[in-house]
Amino acid sequence: MTSKPTQTSKDSQNLDTQSATSTNLTLDSLIEAQVAFMQQWLHAQAQPLTTQAWQWFGEQPLSKYISSDDLQHLINGWFLKQPLSEVVRRDIRDILHTIIYHPVNDNVPLSELVDDSQVEILASYVGSHEEQRNILVHTLVGNETFADLLTQTLYHAINDFMETTLDKAGPAGKLMKLGRSSFEKATNRNLDEKLQSYLHRNIKDLTRRAEANAQAHLSNEEVARLLVSGWGRIKEKPISEIQTYLRDEPNDSSIAHIENSIQQSYNRLRLSPYLHSLVAASVDTWYTNHQDDSIATIAASLHVDEQAITQLSTALLPVITDALESSWFTAHITEMLQAFYAQPSIKAGLVFGSN
């Protein structure tokens, strides 16, 4: 009878090593199979999962996740804190240029942008505000700056006439210039000063009369009529007519000037306590109106409903598919499963065969 060979400690160690290797290979295969299954399952269920997730999220009240302070911090601490980047500013300029100089503007009248009824409503509104209109007339016609500007304009015109045109008038012109010279010597005053003083005194009177006449004749009905008739003269002109008032040179672009002016105003406002206080008050008003609404109710006010979410998820399906099949997603799922099976309680309950 042959006796069984005695198992040495070395043999036992070899068996343990083989068993561990077999176990690791089996566990790795299991994890690989699970990762593949999860990717396939999520791919197949991506759209219904998106719909169900939206249904759940839409049922939640706004106040459960977002407070008024959160919204204010988002606007003041993030959006208004940062200036518009040069990339965004360039995009704004390029888009404005595309819109303003698009060939379609040559064939579309201004009336496509503004309806006649809108002009009539605006005209009636402006015409009915007599006090504000009188202030505007006084600002434009009756102010000192306008009188000074008109005085200087007339003075330069008269002086230019006397200096240049009279030279070509022959003896009569010389006689008038001689009269000017004699007048200066006789009074010992400069004719320029007398002319400016005369014009300034009379122009002030003329501007007061012009202001009074404007306020007297610009009745509510007349103002409305002027606005409507003015619109009637331009409404059939093409939208491209706007281009005649703009410059489009590389170093002198009206669009660039407009965008830069808006940017400067925005930079002043976004950091001012004034705008921040208005933002806080506006957010509080909006939040008070909607804090008890569900997310779906608020989204519906923006025309975002379940149908829109379905269309969005369909459009994003290629992105979701690529993400599920990406190496980073596979690596994260594999790491998660490895961590799961590495738990002592899980390892103790699992038995892997050596085959």
Protein model, in words:
It is a single chain. Helix 1 crosses helix 15 and helix 7 (144-165) crosses helix 9 (191-217). The longest helix is centred in the N-terminal third of the chain and has 51 residues, at 9-59. This protein starts with 8 loop residues before the first helix and ends in a 6-residue tail after the last helix. It has a domain at 109-237. It is mostly helical and 355 residues long. Strands 1-2 form a two-stranded antiparallel ribbon. Residues 1-5 have low confidence and may be disordered. Helix content is 75%, strand content 1%. The chain has helices spanning 9-59, 62-65, 68-79, 86-100, 116-127, 130-140, 144-165, 171-187, 191-217, 220-234, 254-270, 273-290, 295-301, 306-324, 327-341, 344-349; strands at residues 248-249, 252-253.
Largest sheet: 2 strands, antiparallel
Terminus-to-terminus distance: 31 Å
Number of helices: 16
Radius of gyration: 41 Å
Round the mean pLDDT to the nearest integer and report it. Answer: 82
Number of strands: 2
Largest beta sheet: strand ordering: 1-2
Strand fraction band? under 5%
- The level of helicity is over 70%
Task: Return the structural class.
Answer: mainly alpha
Helix and strand succession?
A: HHHHHHHHHHEEHHHHHH
* Overall geometry: elongated
Give the uncertain stretches in residue-range form.
1-5
